[in-house]
Specification:
This protein has 160 residues and is an alpha/beta fold. The protein has 4 helices and 6 strands.
Length: 160
């Protein structure tokens, strides 16, 4: 059994038109929401083996704030393909996770995360910034992610 947490990056700051999409930072709400999500995961005693994140500033910062609350900063791995990924590219990235990692948090972007959530667990709700889907997947190896039986275990929105 594998556990996958899909996390959309927290709310970004759109105020500086000089910044590229990749370099956008989190706004104050985003910073608070990411920290709150990390605290909520800590209260649930979530212990990820790895945190995969897009290297875009807003996703990387979200991952760091979550990892800080979980006391696992060393488990963050930045994966360039997560930025602007398609669903199939995300599945490929997940499929290449080392099998000793049973619990993984993936911090990325829409629309690919929403598409992946729909594909794995038929999730159709709004995948707002800092939303988390907790998915259990009945597989032994990550490369079998698409043929495993996936079940939505938890859905967290920052307003909750």
């Amino acid at each position: 059994m594998k556990k996958l947490y899909l996390v959309r990056h927290a709310t970004s700051d759109l105020g500086d038109a000089k910044l590229s999409d990749f370099d956008r930072t989190l706004n104050e709400k985003g910073l608070r929401d990411a920290q709150a999500l990390g605290k909520a995961l800590a209260q649930l005693e979530t212990f990820p083996d790895q945190i995969l994140a897009s290297p875009a500033i807003r996703a990387k910062t979200t991952a760091k704030l979550i990892a800080k609350e979980l006391r696992c900063m060393e488990k963050i791995v930045l994966e360039r393909p997560i930025y602007e990924a398609t669903r199939s590219e995300l599945l490929h990235t997940i499929g290449s996770i080392e099998d000793q990692h049973n619990t993984v948090i993936l911090v990325g972007h829409n629309p690919s995360l929403a598409d992946l959530g729909h594909h794995l667990v038929n999730f159709h709700a709004n995948f707002a910034p800092c939303t988390l889907l907790e998915i259990d997947i009945d597989i032994d190896t990550w490369k079998d992610i698409e043929i495993g039986d996936s079940k939505l275990q938890n859905f967290y929105k920052p307003q909750e």
